[in-house]
Amino acid sequence: MEQNFRCNCPITSAIDVVGDKWSLVIIKQMLTEGKKTFKDFMESDEAIATNILSSRLKMLEQFKIINKGKLPENKKTNIYTLTDKGIALTPIIVELSIWSDNNLREFHSALYEGEQIEMIRNKKEKFINHIIENYKKNNWLQHGV
User: Fold this and answer.
1) CATH class of this structure's domain 10-143
2) How far apart are the first and last CA of the chain?
3) Where are the domains of the chain?
């Protein structure tokens, strides 16, 4: 699959893939909220439009950030799982959380504040490893992925 990127800059190229309004939200939902199906994503608080969700899932699959399969107990339902490329975005999502906590709280006082933010602040690497291990364990146990 040949893609047209804006330029040869690695940062710009990464933003071309995951820098839109929804891609990292979808990946975050998969990593931290256990979202796996189209319905799961549609029921989330972020309220992504169906056409946008469909488009982003296809694009993430094309770039091998996610895999699409079928639920073993329901062959009609698609299930989406992160690949190693998708899981490798975990540190970026954690860094965005830290940046948001440090820089947006004055503008968004209702930002989540709790145990997870404290762990991110104080034990970032441990938190990243916990997310990755938890994701892999849950997907291996449930779906043999």
Assistant:
1) mainly alpha
2) 24
3) 10-143
Residue range 23-69, pLDDT digits in tens: 999 999 999 999 999 999 999 888 899 999 999 999 999 999 999 99
Residue 1 has pLDDT above 70, yes or no: no
According to the model, what pLDDT value does residue 145 have? 42
